[in-house]
Amino acid sequence: MTVFDDGSGRALYAGGEFTVAGGVAAKYLAKWDGVNWSALGDSPDNRVECLAVFDDGTGPALYAGGDFVNAGGVSANRVAKWDGTSWSPLGGGVDKRVESMTVFDDGGGPALYVGGEFSTAGGLAANRVAKWDGTGWTPLGSGLDDKVFALTVFDEGGSAALYAGGKFGIAGGVNASRIAKWNGSEWAPVGGGVNNTVYALVSFDDGTGADLVVGGAFTVASGVAASRIAKWDGTSWAALGFGMDHSVSCLTVLNDGSGSKLYAGGGFGGAGTIFVGRVAAWNGRNWLALNLGVSWWVESVASFDDGSGLALYAGGLFEQAHPVVAHHIAKWDGSDWSPLGSGLDDSVLATSKFNDGSGQALYAGGAFRFAGATPVNHIAKWNGTAWTPLDRGTDSWVSALRVFDDGSGPALHVGGYFSKAGSVGARGVAKWDGTSWSPLGSGIQGDSVHCLEVFDDGSGAALYAGGHFLKAGGFSASMVARWDGVNWSALGRGLNNTVHSLAVFDDGLGPALYAAGQFSKAGDTTTFGIAKWDGKRWSALGRGLFGAGLAMAVFDDGIGPALFVGGSFAMAGGVPAQKVAKWNGTTWSALASGLNEDVYALASYEDASGSALYAGGKFTIAGGLVAKYIAKWDGTSWSPLETGVSAEVYTLDVMHVDNGRALYAGGSFLASPAGDSHVAKWGCP
User: By the 8 A CB rule, do 279 and 270 touch?
Assistant: First the structure.
């Protein structure tokens, strides 16, 4: 990480192995302005290992080094320059990975120094370290005999020199165990060096004068016991307390107003005699913990002021900065950790609108456990501004949501894989009235509830649940069951395999309940993938589906309402229909050439361009056009929604919230064009 101003203000830049930042597609490199993440044009095409800011005479620019061979579509071998608008190469670059960069003036003017695994720079022999002056590359003597992981500038009291740390044992033909200095003309050892790899270097003044602090995997520095971290004052080595119990990967210095501190990150759990959790601060005398630290390895630390004051930023392999969820990067303000950006941390499987008395809101259920830093446990409410939990949520995934009035007022009914909602035992299905959870009798006895629908069979509206179960309320109910607000009952002999979707449709003979799934029998009727329940008996829809039915929606394409079905099938009623088909009450028809992969969700939505059917799923092609995971059918043709999203869409819903009516999509995607992860809003184009 490093801080750079591209002309729009100072921002934190992070490089690594990621391809998404805060829901935005950003391959290997991203910018955090304190509020949002953004990409740097067409980023490098592989991992970014290091960043530095350097002015080659044309103005300050951001330089990136790593494993890439292209940046912004331009050939740039392992090192490239970003001027805030576009990428450019540094001559011919280098022939292998770049691991470290810094700026140093050897007397001939500031230049960018690069270290890593390479043996050539700009076609010249340059063993593991080289200098870029803005126009060309030059080697530093005969270089080093193994990898360079760290570069920094340090003044021992006479004049500044460039220090390199890594795996090497020889620098410029001289013995230099893992650390060496370059004065502009020759290499020299740093005392007796250290006994194992150096990963990090930084200059730090604890109040007694500046020292070079070195972090890595070593345990001895020039004969002095120093566990993974040590300091060099220009003449001798010394330990920093008792050091760490595992490797130090990164170092930085930050003054948060209480004096300068040295911050270290790595794989260590303990620093000195205390538990710190992979990141710790050194005040010159003692090691200090940052709460409980983070959950896994820290690879980079940097300081940045996002407008609320200077703070420490840590990046690495972790998923939690205790006690909050923070995917690979987090901010420490001196007292607490916080994530960079918010959103849900895992897939959304179901959405629904519901007014609990405080206004219409969007409810989402799924595999997620956090919304930003807030624990929500598989279900959460979005009021247009923020996510809030529903008490303690559920103890496992939520896969279905539907509003139903059992006579005591409308409430949100929830189905899924759970056995508890809040502190209440509720097997597979539960009710949320806006303030508390309650069960629906003894619930569902089976694997899970996948779908919920409200239907009136002539005896009054009831809630219908479909999924993979054999009992409801203790009674036999195969894969589908009816809840009237008091009791569960079966729908005849039910279905012989999983139900994935339920919908109500009037084919001209009156409203009926339709079930779609993986079954081949409904009651005693043979029917493949889809069936109709009229309140008394099951019937087939022609020859059914050649594959599973996974989603249904009613939509009027201009010639009258029809039932549209999506799934994994290739035929409907004997008609070729790729993954989506229309049932008008008597016959099946295809929707052009259909979609190339499974459909998981369907919804009708009307914007300024008219009413259309929207499909979400696993597909990337709709009607022969690129349409990543979400597409629109206007009755005659398919079209994409901008560039789509980055992964599967599992649920679609329409509602009024915040800025008016909109379509909401939920799924496993980490990125949408709007910068959302797992749930996103599509408004009027």
Answer: no
Which amino acid makes up residue 263?
Y
Type of residue found at 563: L
pLDDT at res. 481:
97
- SS3 readout for 460-519: CEEEEEEEEEEEECCEECCCEEEECCCCEEECCCCECCCEEEEEEEECCCCEEEEEEECC
306-353 pLDDT tens trace: 888 888 999 998 878 887 777 788 899 888 888 776 667 678 899 888
Q: Is residue 55 part of a domain?
A: no
- Domain presence at residue 380: yes
Q: How confident is the model at residue 684 (pLDDT cuts 50, 70, 90)?
A: low
Count of domains observed in the chain: 1
* Integer Cα distance of 24 and 119 in angstroms: 36
Smallest Cα–Cα separation from 66: which of 279, 265, 296, 299?
A: 299
Distance CA 179, CA 641 (A): 54
Cα–Cα distance for residue pair 130/112, rounded to 1 Å = 8
Residue 428: closest CA among 445, 404, 412, 441: 445
Residue 392 domain boundaries: 342-458+472-490
Residue 410, H or E segment: strand 410-416
Residue 324: half-sphere exposure toward Cβ, Cα within 13 Å = 21
Q: Is residue 383 part of a domain?
A: yes
Quick: pLDDT tens for 341-388: 666 767 889 988 888 988 888 899 999 887 766 789 999 998 777 789
3-state secondary structure of 221: strand
Residue 106, H or E segment:
none
Residue where the block lists tokens 């081949």: 520
Q: Is residue 7 assigned to a domain?
A: no
594: helix, strand or coil: coil
Q: Is 75 exposed, middle or buried (0-12, 13-18, 19+ CB in 10 A)?
A: exposed
Tell me the CB-side half-sphere exposure of residue 206, using CA atoms within 13 A: 16
Structure letter (DSSP) for residue 574: T
**What tokens were used for 342?**
């918010």
Write the pLDDT tens digit of every residue in 513-528: 999 999 999 999 999 9
**Looking only at Cα atoms, what is the longest distance across the chain?**
95
| Spatial distance between the Cα atoms of 556 and 634, rounded to a whole number of angstroms | 10
In angstroms, the CA 314 to CA 271 distance is 17
d(CA 98, CA 114): 7
Query: How far is it, in rounded angstroms, from Cα 268 to Cα 259?
Result: 24
Distance CA 13, CA 4 (A): 7
CB 396 within 8 A of CB 381: no
Bin 222: left if φ > 0, else alpha if -120 < ψ < 50, else beta. Answer: left
Residue 161 main-chain phi, psi, to 5 deg: -140, 160
Which tokens sit at 351?
A: 């959405």
DSSP 559: S
Residue with tokens 């205790």, as numbered in its chain: 322
